[in-house]
C-alpha cells in the first residue's frame, strides 16, 4: 500500500510538494549524490528540490503534473521491492509525455508476465505495443534499433508458451542480408546460421533459464531457423516471430505470412532505415505494410527515436540521422 499523500494543487507560481514516508526509500529514489533527481529535473524540464522527506516541483503546470506522476510511480516501485536505477529513471522520463496515454505511473503499467518475472514497457511506444501483442493475431513492429521490438515479442511468445496458449515458438530471420547466401561461410549449416540468429537466442535466455531453453530447443517447443526453412510449412498453435523483416523480399514476406495456421500468432519486426537488399529490390516489409493496410486482424506498432531504450545517446543518434535524411529527401 502506498504512503504517498495527495500533493498540493499545481499552479504556475507555487511549487507542488510531494512528501514521502520512508526516508530510506526516498534516498534510493534520489540516487547517489542526487543523480536521479538531477536527471529527472533535466529530462522532465522542471525544477526539483529536496528538503528532508519532501520534494518540491516547480515549472509549467503540465510538466509539474508529469513529474508528479513520474516520482510517485518510481517511489511505488521501491515500495513494492523493485529496484530503481538508471534504466528506470530513463523509462519514467520517456513515459512522462503528454501523448503517453493512458498516463499511468511506472508501477501500474501493464506488463508481459513470464515465470522469470514481469517485462514492463519502458516507453510510450512499448506500452502500445504490449497491448497489441496481447490482442492482435498478427502484429508488425516497425522502427529503429533499440526500441525493444524483438525483445518484447519474444517475451510475449514465452509468456504464451508457459501459459499453454501456444504449443511452440518459432523464431526466424533472413540469414544473410539479401537472399540468405550461406554457401561461402565456413562450417556446417548450424554454424553458418547461428551468428544471424544470436539476438533471438539472447532474448530467449533472458526470459527463461538456459537449461530450459536448451531442453525446449531439443524437443521442438522452440525452433530458431532462417527464413528459408519456413517454405512449404503450415504453423499451427505457434507463436511465430520474423525478425529483421526489412531484409525480406516481397515473395519471401508473402510466403512467411501465409504459413499461419489455426491458433497461430505472428509478429513481424523490422527497421525500414536498415534495408540491406540490393539497390532496386523492394523490401517485403514495406510492401506488406502497404498491401495489408486496414486488413482486419493485422495491427501495426510504430516506434520512433523517443522509444529507444538503450543508452540515451542512441536515441539522439537515431534522431540526428532521421533529421539528416529527412532534410536530404527534401532537396
Helix content: 40-55%
Write down the Rg. Answer: 22 Å
* Separation, N- and C-terminal Cα atoms: 57 Å
Structural class: alpha/beta
The global form is globular
Q: Report on the biggest sheet.
A: 6 strands, parallel
**What spatial order of strands do you see in the largest sheet?**
8-7-9-10-6-11
Order of helices and strands: EHHEEHHEEHEHEHHEEHEHEH
Q: Uncertain segments of ≥5 residues (pLDDT<50)? A: 8-12, 101-105
Strand content: 15-25%
Summarize the structure in words.
Helices cover 41% and strands 16% of the residues. The chain is built from eleven helices and eleven strands. It has helices at 23-30, 35-44, 61-79, 86-95, 124-135, 149-162, 189-207, 210-219, 250-257, 284-291, 312-330, and strands at 16-19, 47-51, 54-58, 112-114, 117-119, 138-142, 168-173, 222-226, 238-242, 265-270, 298-302. Helix 3 packs antiparallel against helix 4. The N and C termini lie far apart (57 Å). The relative contact order is 0.12. Mean pLDDT is 83; it is low at 8-12 and 101-105.
Q: Could you list some keywords that capture this structure?
A:
331 residues; alpha/beta; six-stranded parallel β-sheet; three-stranded antiparallel β-sheet
Amino acid at each position: 500500500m502506498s504512503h504517498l499523500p495527495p500533493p498540493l494543487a499545481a499552479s504556475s507560481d507555487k511549487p507542488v510538494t510531494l512528501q514521502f514516508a520512508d526516508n530510506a526509500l526516498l534516498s534510493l529514489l534520489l540516487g547517489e549524490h542526487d543523480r536521479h533527481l538531477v536527471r529527472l529535473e533535466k529530462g522532465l524540464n522542471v525544477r526539483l528540490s529536496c528538503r528532508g522527506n519532501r520534494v518540491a516541483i516547480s515549472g509549467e503546470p503540465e510538466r509539474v503534473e508529469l513529474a508528479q506522476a513520474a516520482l510517485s510511480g518510481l517511489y511505488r516501485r521501491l515500495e513494492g521491492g523493485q529496484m530503481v536505477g538508471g534504466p528506470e529513471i530513463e523509462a519514467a522520463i520517456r513515459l512522462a509525455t503528454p501523448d503517453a496515454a493512458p498516463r499511468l505511473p511506472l508501477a501500474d503499467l501493464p506488463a508481459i508476465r513470464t515465470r522469470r518475472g514481469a517485462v514492463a514497457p519502458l516507453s510510450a511506444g512499448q506500452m502500445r505495443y504490449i497491448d497489441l501483442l496481447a490482442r492482435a493475431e498478427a502484429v508488425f513492429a516497425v522502427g529503429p534499433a533499440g526500441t525493444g521490438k524483438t525483445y518484447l515479442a519474444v517475451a510475449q511468445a514465452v509468456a504464451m508458451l508457459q501459459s499453454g496458449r501456444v504449443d511452440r515458438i518459432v523464431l526466424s530471420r533472413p540469414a544473410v542480408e539479401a537472399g540468405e547466401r550461406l554457401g561461402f561461410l565456413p562450417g556446417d549449416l548450424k554454424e553458418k546460421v547461428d551468428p544471424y540468429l544470436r539476438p533471438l537466442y539472447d532474448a530467449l535466455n533472458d526470459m527463461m533459464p538456459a537449461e530450459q531453453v536448451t531442453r525446449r530447443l531439443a524437443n521442438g517447443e522452440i525452433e530458431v531457423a532462417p527464413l528459408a526453412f519456413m517454405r512449404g510449412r503450415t504453423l499451427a498453435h505457434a507463436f511465430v516471430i520474423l525478425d529483421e523483416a526489412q531484409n525480406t523480399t516481397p515473395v519471401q514476406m508473402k510466403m512467411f505470412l501465409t504459413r499461419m495456421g489455426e491458433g497461430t500468432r505472428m509478429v513481424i519486426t523490422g527497421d525500414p532505415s536498415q534495408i540491406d537488399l540490393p539497390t532496386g529490390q523492394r523490401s517485403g516489409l514495406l510492401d506488406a505494410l502497404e498491401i495489408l493496410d486496414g486488413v482486419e486482424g493485422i495491427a501495426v506498432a510504430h516506434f520512433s527515436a523517443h522509444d529507444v531504450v538503450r543508452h540515451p545517446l542512441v536515441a539522439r543518434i537515431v534522431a540526428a540521422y532521421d533529421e539528416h535524411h529527412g532534410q536530404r529527401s527534401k532537396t
